[in-house]
Structures are given as structure tokens and as C-alpha cells.
Amino acid sequence: MIIKQNKRQTVFYLIFMVVLVAFCLCFVIIDWKGGSDGNATIADSVFLYWLFKVLCFLCCIVLAAASVYFVRQLFSKKPLIEICDEYFYDNSSAIALGRIEWCDIERVYSKGGYLNIKLKNPQKYFERKNWIQLMLIKSNLKLGYGDACITTQRFSKDAVKFIEEFRKRWENYNQ
Question: Do 31 and 16 share a domain, yes or no?
């Protein structure tokens, strides 16, 4: 079973990210201290004013990175999900682990709209990730999600078929 990219949805996410980057840049670039009309604002405190600008700049960087991810996804020929007899391939998010062998999967469970996969030896898959991806994976683990989290929102019309096929292959392998 192969689930391909939903190009329309990826374009929508990309446009949304670019708009948010522009919005954050406006807060960073524009000097919005303005005239004082007697009402107290965040701009009255120099510390809070610059703290807000720095936070907006950091948000801008994160959103720009997300935009780059969606541009890469838009032009990627790889499927989001591929389920075979020997392995499972995940390309559904920025922290996707790629090709996962069925023998490496310890447990599969659902939590919060995600299909979670607990691996027997996750370090084998984590060594290919950069520090930002590792930080995101660790935060998922602290929240109780699996080593690999697959959201079915990006392929909603095939979500039921995907979960059925995944569980069928997982059960067949474990018998």
C-alpha cells in the first residue's frame, strides 16, 4: 500500500507558513512603539518590547524552517507512507524515521489521533537525525507518544485503509 503526497494540502500549508513568516517579520521590523495615548502597552517597557521582538524573530525562524520543509515535500517524489511485507516506510513528517523493518517494531498503539510505534532499538534510527529533530522526538517521548508518530491528517481519505493495512501487516508479522 502506498499513500502519496497530497500536493494541494502541502501548497495550502506552505502558503499558510509564508503568511505567518511575513506576519512575524512585520513585528520584528516595524517599530510599533508609536505615540502614547495614555494606555499602558508592552511597548512601554523596553525589556518587554525587545523580548517580544526576539520571540517574534525566533518564531519567524521556526516558521521559515517549516516552510522549507513543505517546499521539499512539495517537490519530493517519495510517498508519504509505504507498507510492504518486509518493511514500513514513513515520510509523513519532519521527524519521520524513514524505512522501519517490521522486526524492529516492539509495540503499536494509538494516542491523540496518532499511530505510535515503539521500537526495540530506536538509536539505530535516531543516529540519522539532526539535533533539532532529536529534540522534537524527545519532546514527543516525554508526552507519551512513540518513537515514531504518524498522523493520519495529511492523508485523511486513506486513513482508515492505512490503519487497517498497517495492523494487518503488523499482526501477520507477529504470528
Answer: yes
Q: How distant, in Å, are the alpha carbons of 19, 74, 94, 161 from that of 78? A: 27, 10, 13, 19
Question: Does the pLDDT at position 31 exceed 80?
Answer: no
Same domain, 7 and 69: yes
C-alpha cell at 142: 516525554
Radius of gyration of the chain (CA): 21
Q: Domain limits at 166?
A: 81-174
Kindly state whether residues 65 and 123 are assigned to the same domain: no
Give phi and psi for 94, each to the nearest 5: -70, -20
**Domain final residue pick, 54, 74, 94:** 74
What is d(CA 157, CA 80) in angstroms, rounded to the nearest whole number? 14
| Non-local CB neighbours of 67 within 8 Å, separated by 6+ positions | 14, 17, 18, 21
pLDDT in tens, 75-124: 888 888 888 888 888 888 888 888 888 888 888 887 777 888 888 888 88
With vertex at residue 126, the alpha carbon angle to CA 120 and CA 113, rounded to the nearest 5 degrees, is 70
pTM for this model (two decimals):
0.68
Question: Do residue 28 and residue 44 come from a single domain?
Answer: yes
